Amino acid sequence: MATKTSCITDKIITVAQALDLAIDYFQKGDIEKTKEICTKILLIDKNNSDCYNLLGIIEAQKGRHHNAIELFNSAISIKSDFSYLYNLGNSYKAVGSLDQAINSYRLAIDMQPSYAGLYFQLGMALRDQGNYKASVEVFRNWVRSNPSDADGLINLGSILAEQNEYDEAIDCYQKVLRLDPTSKTALFNQAVTLANQSRIGEASKIFDKLLAEHPSDAFKIISVLQIPIIPSSTQAILDWREEFLSKINQLIEAELKIQDPLSEIGKTSFYLAFHGLDNRELNCKIAQLMMTSCPSLSWTSPHCLENRQSKGRIRIGFISKFFHLHSIGKTSRGLIAELSRKLFEVHSIFVPPVIDDPVSRLIQNCSDYYHILPQSLHEARKEISNLKLDILFYQDIGMEPFTYYLAFSRLARVQCVSFGHPDTTGIDNIDYFISTNYFEPRNSGSCYSEKLIELQNVATPAYYYEPETRLDKTRHDFGLSERTNLYLCPQTLFKFHPDFDFMLAQILRIDDQATILCLEAHIPYWTKLLKERFKRSVGEAVKRILFLSRQNFNDYMNLLAFSDVVLDTLYFNGMNTTLEAFSVGTPVITLPSHFQRGRHTFGMYQKMGIYECIATDPSDYARRAAQIANDKDLRNSISRKIIDRKMVLFEDRQVLSQWEEFLVGALNLSLKRSLMDNKNGTNALFL
Q1: Is residue 542 part of a domain?
Q2: Angle 166-179/150-162 helices, nearest 10 degrees?
Q3: H or E, element range at 547
Q4: Residue 595, in any domain of the structure
Q5: 545-567 burial, b for 16+ CB within 10 Å, e for fewer?
Q6: Buried b (16+ CB within 10 A) or exposed e, 309-340
Q7: For 396-410, how does the pLDDT look when each residue is reduced to its tens digit (9 = 90+)?
Q8: Which of 59, 437, 500, 585 could link 67 by a cystine bridge, Cβ 3.0 to 4.6 Å?
Q9: What range does the domain containing 546 cover?
Q10: pTM for this structure?
Q11: Is residue 614 classed as helix, strand or coil in its secondary structure?
């Protein structure tokens, strides 16, 4: 082939020389000239695999991955080469064809087992597929063969950390730091991993070293945003918050600059919500810091500045990373499925990775359209903008960084949030927070940066399907005694505020037959920290606080059913947990607090007209819990009331009608304001 010649340029050159010339143009960024030469080469040599590969690379760089796949396959049909397979795998991965991507990477590894990039891409494709076990094994195999490869160790550590295998992840980072004590990535990953275990003191020392070796504005911000997850005491929370506010103010005054907060910071203030305090000032300050350091966050979709063209259905988008078998998926699916299709065109917007399970499939199938966002904040903004949504509903701003940073943009005329993460966002472009009058104490609107909307006379803002379960197990199946009074508190451990310890201790003091049952955290170090705190706060009776491993859904529902009472955590109640407990008739003891996240169970009891389980203070909480657990007739009487009245909690059509009324009204108000701005000349687009 290399001996063929042609007038591809002004000179007679060989095909090989022409290909070298095309590559030279490509490297200089002259894509049109590259394509021109490749086209001429293929007229002479239609089996030039390198030419197809180069054209495929160009298509992939332009984002035209389906065209690229066709070109890479053409190259491979002529000559099997590991680089072609690598490129093919990348394009398959980009279009979400993970099975084909994984197959391409495996074939390439068989041909070139020493190329590290292949292991990285294969491992990440398996991870995106949800096959974490296989992903870890790929990285482990590479590290075994290349124990001094820092990138391989960091990749392995990152995947392990994603699966909460933090100790092993830290071991990987420490191996890198023994090779290079100043490794920026290893220092950063180790600091974040320690912070995610609530080892804040240790993390701070690593962040200090990181900033000394690699000073950056992003590192300054992320080092401050590490919030204790299992605090040692209430005073520790208060001291930390005071210092935190001071540091945030200092960062705002420092006029820091970052380009992409998602990749550079990737952190939210999630754990503030569990402090039992008003977070409006702190969350507004954090949002101000993000905006001053990255003004591009406040991007506005062009359609939001134009007159609404369509007179048809209202286009509403529901967005979350947790549209699967998760509390968010369970509280969101009903509204998405049941919202009026005469009024609304419903889009569900998935933040990847998408988990394939019955809830995610239901949400996809019951939406008019569903979309999987690209993983770039910039590209995601463009994709949502192209939908020209009237309303964008964020279920859970603050639970993860992607939707948090996305929410700073104006991507729809009306943007709202609800109880998925029940705390104010502090973000100017979020217009409304939707709650219920049963959840909100009087004058609670001052706690929100958004305008508070209270649905009336509904138990929750969710159109919630009653869970289906099979109650077929006893305490014996879990190694639990039938003779003890069983108090179940199945909440995630970061909901256990230090003030709650007193209430647990009181129950154990009042009831010497009490066993309090908790579920271990998915991060073992959290369980360790909470057990250590209990030893200090509960004392000798701590031996009657047991921890079970995490349960599958059916076993979890059985635990709820055969417990004497469920203990609602203080300051941050259960939502799904309480609804699930009520579905099997188990009483939930609750003490309503000052913010809606501490009043969910109270609101449900208000709707049902049941008051025996609502405490007035911490001591009353313990007294009521012990009384109901010990008096089986009382317990059964309350259980029968719950069973008889629980239908008001599930599939309440009032929830739908009030949502629809609010959404239509909010859009009309927005359009009216736009019209007034247009008439008054305050909208630059209309000048």
Answers
A1: yes
A2: 160
A3: strand 545-548
A4: yes
A5: beebeeeeeebbbbbbbbbbbbb
A6: eeeeebbbbbbbbbbbebbbbbbbbbbbbbbe
A7: 999 999 999 999 999
A8: 59
A9: 475-649
A10: 0.87
A11: strand
